[in-house]
Amino acid sequence: MVIDALVRHAASMLTDNARFEAEQIVTHILGISRTELITNPRRTVTDDEVKRVDETAARRAGGEPLQYILGETEFMSLPFKVNRSTLIPRSDTETLVEHVLEHMNGKACEILDVGAGTGCIGISLTHYNQNARVTELDISFDALNTARENAEINGVSDRTEFIKADILNEIPDGAYDIIVSNPPYIETAVIGTLQTEVKDYEPISALDGGEDGLTFYRRISEIAPKMLKKGGLLAFEIGFDQGESVKKLMEKNFKDVRIIKDLCGNDRVVSGRGA
Ligand code: GLN
Prior knowledge:
Helicase, Ruva Protein, domain 3, 21% strand, 9 strands, 2 domains, alpha/beta, Rossmann fold, single chain
């Protein structure tokens, strides 16, 4: 079989973005770039490669997210390892990163990233602002190990620290310029209605925001003043319909609270400055 036929074979097994995902599977298993795949469609592949592509496409067809199968994804144009202990980074979250990058404007900043997961937020902030340092906080030891690996891959280990803590019951030490978080924000009752890829594969602890979805916003905006330097920034990612509720929560302790939209025009970030 040749590369082109292998891509078509894999695509025939898939449904969402079939051609695109088939190309991702084939390039990953053959260890080639997309350019090579396109410029060399008649190269012969081995039986073993066909078998591995076939197995991978079958897993994907069963609903497992491609990012978990391949073990990697891209966020802010940077590579990140992912596994089932971490949420898969979403392009929506780039709105939060862009907002904080704009706020820092290249200045030296100490950042706390609450609910690190893969570390995608804090790591891209330190990658794109060489004067920033980040502390990645998560309740999951496995997630922190993944974040540590990602800090290494992206060359920011020397400016990254890791804390294992339960933010709902502990208050980390430190005085930060910025606290950033994409906390779990789905209402508990809604989780069962989400697509298979999310509800059956992503960690519940990274999704479940309690009965009204606001548990983490309530807690973090309450304790953030203890962890922020004077005038520091608290910036959250939010669900598209949580803008007004989170703004109201934050206004108890923060000023200049604003809602920022993502590229699709949905409310996506709420941020404010400490007193
Ligand atoms: N900070 C990580 C992300 O944005 C994880 C967020 C989470 O698990 N809720 O992908």
